[in-house]
Amino acid sequence: MTDSHNESPNELGDIVSVATGAGTFSTLVAAVSAAGLVDTLQGEGPFTVFAPSDDAFAALPDGLVEALLVEENREVLTKVLTYHVVPGKVMAADVATGDVASVEGSTIAVSVGDTVTLNGSATVTATDVLASNGVIHVIDAVILPPGVDAAALLA
């Protein structure tokens, strides 16, 4: 848990401004912008965002981020990004093992143990980064929704 619980929501920026200000989500912010999702994530919410760090994006196969950012792949990029968003404000203390519906429409398999993992591949590395319209949990890998074939984007 962070110490930011004592801040009033009026003092916090929205999810996009908090992510921008953190300095470790420049790829995510660029992707949100390329997908046209800035206004959505600046909206009322509340949203819970499992935010891949810049290192998580850097770990993707060479060329994949660039391929996702081109206009003809905007629909796929939107699916990938909205798969990292869950409706509502879910604080770390409220996370439980099970399938959680994403804004994209598919479910994310959440496993709570010594660490919290998503789909068995991404680990939550920081929790409860508060924003005026939700909360961010930092993850160390990009998760892909069912039906998104990363290799096909590189072909």
TrEMBL record:
<protein>
    <submittedName>
        <fullName>Fasciclin domain-containing protein</fullName>
    </submittedName>
</protein>
<dbReference type="InterPro" id="IPR000782">
    <property type="entry name" value="FAS1_domain"/>
</dbReference>
<dbReference type="Pfam" id="PF02469">
    <property type="entry name" value="Fasciclin"/>
</dbReference>
<feature type="domain" description="FAS1">
    <location>
        <begin position="12"/>
        <end position="143"/>
    </location>
</feature>
<dbReference type="InterPro" id="IPR036378">
    <property type="entry name" value="FAS1_dom_sf"/>
</dbReference>
<dbReference type="GO" id="GO:0005615">
    <property type="term" value="C:extracellular space"/>
</dbReference>
<dbReference type="InterPro" id="IPR050904">
    <property type="entry name" value="Adhesion/Biosynth-related"/>
</dbReference>
<keyword id="KW-0732">Signal</keyword>
